[in-house]
Amino acid sequence: MNLSAEDFQAIALTLQLASVTTVLLLLLATPVAWWLAHTHSAWRAPVASLVALPLVLPPTVLGFYLLVALGPNGPIGQFTQWAGWGTLAFSFWGLVLGSVVYSLPFAVQPLVNAFEAMGPRPMEVAATLRASKWDAFFTVAVPLAKPGFVMAAMLSFAHTVGEFGVVLMIGGNIPDKTRVVSTQIYGHVEAMEYSQAHGLAGVMLVFSFVVLLGLSWFNRRPHRHATRHPKASA
Amino acid sequence: MKFRLMLAFASTLFCVAAQAGEVTVAVAANFTAPMQKIAKAFEQDTGHKAQLAFGATGKFYAQIKNAAPFAVLLAADDETPVRLEKEGFAVAGTRFTYATGRLALWSKQPHLVDEKAEVLRSHSFEKLGIHKIAMADPKLAPYGAAAMEVIHKMGVQTHVIPKLVQGESIGQTYQFVSTENAQLGFVALSQISVDGRITQGSAWVVPQSMHTPLKQDAVLLNAGKDNAAAHALLKYLKGDTAKAIITRYGYAL
């Protein structure tokens, strides 16, 4: 395999992007999933649909709306300029923002499933033992929902690594800043540099296979429920 | 059922009477708007119908090599038709330049781009509020390669290149500038002008002498060899009606 220095840059950047995105997603998706799993509010269906939107929207549409929103006249752009960060398009944090939106359903759905599978009993028991809500959440709910967290993290990470349309739209293809593996492969293929494309695509293929293999191995272990794929239930 | 049969019969008759055919055309995305107008005029004037598919030339190349049913290719460059001809997928001797693209340096802001592109020579982009300059990927798009030539010819590469962001196509490059995520960018003149006038912002129309001509060539593909409508379309593209439409959309001939 003949990977160039630029290919390695793209791999490093992709891993960095996927790691940051996964951490942020777990922090963001946990309260959202907890609320979705427990609420009887009329807002449940609209919020659940909103969270699932990235599953059905073409990434180019998502990317285009993000480009408009991040621009100096868009709502996000106006906020980031006001905060003194400038505009986020063509920057690493712009990609992080895009990836969080893009991978959101892949983090939320396994957590919702895990929290729902847990049922209300453990939390009720904890409450009768006079555990505070936070205490019960961290000592009872989180350990019980661990498979859901693992699943959410793996899916978010893998899905962000494989992301293409959104990073293409808001990335600007800057080496070492916004050029990730998928856009690098796309460039190789479009430029008909098929042998270079093969090398990088091979890495991607092996990675994806290993992740999916890991997930199915993880799923098959006994007593590991609440780990359905989001697409199956969204 | 009877009615349907009669309808089918009548429509066959009508087709024979008008000797109307159909031609499926692969059209470079940047030529979408003028080609829609041309196809309409073509149908009115000849009775033939042109089915248009729009997309990236590189993708069409791969599809044509894998037996896509296109009869004519209107490419975004002059290399792809040559290559198809050499590889035996196009009919030799049918190639010609149907339009020549024009490059423009464009900003959404009025007065930012002057007529001599002094803005590119500026050594204080930040003071002018210019954080990013967009162009198409020179590796993937002829407009990007031309823009790079212009940057080098002007000798401004040292301070322009660090500001560059690249779209994968000229269409995406246009989006970068029109959403003002990039304050300045090299786009196709056809994207920003109507009847020779810049529709918004400010622009410098790059003199054609500053880069390799952006020739867009048409070619008859093997699938269209015996298709009368395909031959008619290629002829029509060289005619006055088509030429008038093409220049109106900011292309040179």
Automatic annotation (TrEMBL), chain A:
Keyword Repeat: no
Purpose: Part of the binding-protein-dependent transport system for molybdenum; probably responsible for the translocation of the substrate across the membrane.
Recorded GO MF terms: molybdate ion transmembrane transporter activity
Cross-referenced InterPro entries: MetI-like, MetI-like_sf, ModB_ABC
Family matches, as Gene3D superfamilies: MetI-like
TM stretches of this protein: 12-36, 48-70, 90-115, 136-158, 197-218
Official protein name in the record: Molybdenum transport system permease
Membrane topology annotation: Multi-pass membrane protein
Localization: Cell inner membrane; Cell membrane
Recorded family membership: Belongs to the binding-protein-dependent transport system permease family. CysTW subfamily.
Keyword Transcription regulation on entry: no
GO CC annotations on file: plasma membrane
Principal cellular location given in the protein's record: membrane
Record-annotated ABC transmembrane type-1 domain positions: 11-215
Lineage: Bacteria, Pseudomonadati, Pseudomonadota, Betaproteobacteria, Burkholderiales
Domain of life: Bacteria
Signal peptide start and end residues: none
Keywords annotated in UniProt: Cell inner membrane, Cell membrane, Membrane, Molybdenum, Transmembrane, Transmembrane helix, Transport
Pfam family, one: BPD_transp_1
From TrEMBL, chain B:
Signal peptide annotation: 1-20
Binding site for molybdate: T57, I170
Gene Ontology biological-process annotations: molybdate ion transport
GO molecular function: metal ion binding; molybdate ion binding
The keyword Signal appears for this protein: yes
Keywords noted in UniProt: Metal-binding, Molybdenum, Signal
InterPro entries: AvModA-like_subst-bd (IPR044084), ModA (IPR005950), ModA/WtpA (IPR050682)
Pfam families: SBP_bac_11
SUPFAM superfamilies hit by this protein: Periplasmic binding protein-like II
Family classification: Belongs to the bacterial solute-binding protein ModA family.
Protein's name according to its UniProt entry: Molybdate ABC transporter substrate-binding protein
Species whose genome carries this gene: Limnohabitans curvus
Upper taxonomic lineage: Bacteria, Pseudomonadati, Pseudomonadota, Betaproteobacteria, Burkholderiales
